[in-house]
Design goal:
Blueprint: E1 9-13, E2 16-20, E3 29-31, H1 33-40, H2 48-59, H3 65-77, H4 84-100, E4 102-103, H5 116-123, E5 136-139, H6 144-155, E6 164-169, E7 179-181, E8 185-188, E9 191-193, H7 197-204, H8 222-234, E10 239-245, H9 250-264, E11 271-276, E12 281-283, H10 295-306, H11 310-319, H12 329-341, E13 348-357, E14 362-370
Helix pairs in contact: 7-9, 9-12, 10-11, 11-12
Length: about 375
């Protein structure tokens, strides 16, 4: 047996580490630093004897067969190991979501109110005189309680005249395919935002992999959820097409944008593309030794986007391997390519802010734009 740990999130706590399942299948697990080291050795290349030997080599401590097998059973029971039990549970969760047909709200009551009137009062800011019918907007997916004014700089200008909203998000959870589409309707405080499933079927025809394979990545994905709430409030009769863009080279991303454009072409004059992204993530929370101001990189990136020079924006991030962790790198490439193919040449930056989290000595920046 060569145990292999599946993809997990690890959160450092006082006195230990919290093991969290990004797909929401397993319950959280609290482990010691010694247990976390053992887990790091479970990469599928070592059997039990190899794990014991490497643990001894690294720590000088001997772990007994009984203790190691008990720990493996604990991980297996919790479905943290890649094996048949986990694969069966994964398929079961996928079937449950498909059968239900609706994506539930996962941040309601914490980030925004469940009541429609209360939610509308919470989301809306001061009235903005300018009224636009843009083809695209870039908005944050930062906690709405923090970034509400930046959201409203974009959403507050939009006329309610769209019949289709295409939400392009990013994945904060395990996502296997380069992109995916959500085949479910989306629950919001304002009612159900219906998904245009026919468009998903058309988009699927361009690809030889299942574009709904990563459906579980949408369970808690706030880059999709927050945009869906605003979309249903502003366009109560519109339908939606929600996608996560996870990775890809420039050729793949251009092709994705062009395929999306083919799919929505009959509705293009009544379509709004939303790029739901944040900007930089820097500081100790994200693995940096110290926190610093990311605005120099953000503003250069935003200037490229404003001129729809998305290839230059992409290259800017590629040059230093996206050092400040701008999470819209792939999503914005697809978004901007679509806009440029539609004949647009210029956007406008509406707002830009940097949020400092003192507790973790970290910063997250975010912006809103209109095209």
């Amino acid at each position: 047996m060569k145990p292999k740990l599946r993809y997990i999130d690890v959160i450092a706590l006082d006195g230990g580490f919290l093991i969290r399942d990004p797909l929401g299948i397993s319950e959280n697990l609290l482990v010691s630093k010694e247990a976390l080291l053992i887990m790091s050795l479970m990469d599928g290349s070592r059997d039990v004897l190899d794990i014991k030997a490497d643990y001894f080599r690294l720590t000088g401590q001997i772990i007994s067969d009984e203790d190691l097998m008990d720990f493996l059973k604990r991980l297996d029971d919790a479905l943290f190991l890649e094996n048949e039990r986990y694969a069966d549970a994964l398929q079961c969760k996928r079937r449950e979501m498909f059968t239900k047909g609706i994506r539930d709200m996962s941040h309601v009551g914490e980030v925004y109110p469940a009541d429609a009137q209360a939610c509308e009062r919470f989301l809306k800011g001061p009235e903005i005189q300018e009224r636009l019918s843009p083809l695209g907007i870039m908005v944050p997916h930062m906690d709405i309680r923090i970034a509400k004014s930046t959201y409203w700089e974009a959403y507050g200008r939009i006329k309610g005249d769209k019949a289709l909203v295409v939400i392009l998000g990013v994945s904060h959870y395990w996502h296997e395919m380069p992109f995916s589409a959500l085949p479910l309707d989306m629950k919001t405080p304002f009612g159900i935002l219906k998904t245009n499933r026919a468009l998903i079927e058309k988009l699927q025809s361009f690809y030889n992999f299942d574009i709904t394979h990563d459906i579980l990545s949408y369970r808690y994905e706030h880059s999709i959820e927050f945009a869906s709430v605003y979309a249903k409030m502003i366009f109560p009769e519109a339908k939606a097409l929600a996608l996560i863009v996870s990775y890809g080279d420039e050729k793949f991303l251009k092709t994705l944008g062009e395929n999306l454009l083919r799919v929505v072409e009959p509705f293009i004059h009544k379509t709004l593309f939303i790029s739901s992204v944040d900007m930089s993530h820097v500081g100790k929370k994200f693995g940096d030794s110290l926190c610093y101001d990311p605005s120099f990189k953000d503003r250069e990136y935003l200037r490229y986007l404003e001129d729809l020079e998305y290839e230059q924006a992409f290259e800017l991030l590629e040059k230093d391997k996206n050092r400040t962790r701008i999470d819209g790198q792939y999503t914005n490439f697809v978004f901007a390519h679509i806009l440029k193919k539609c004949g647009l040449t210029k956007g406008r930056i509406l707002d830009y802010k940097v949020y400092y989290e003192r507790l973790t000595d970290s910063k997250v920046s975010y912006a809103s734009m209109v095209f």
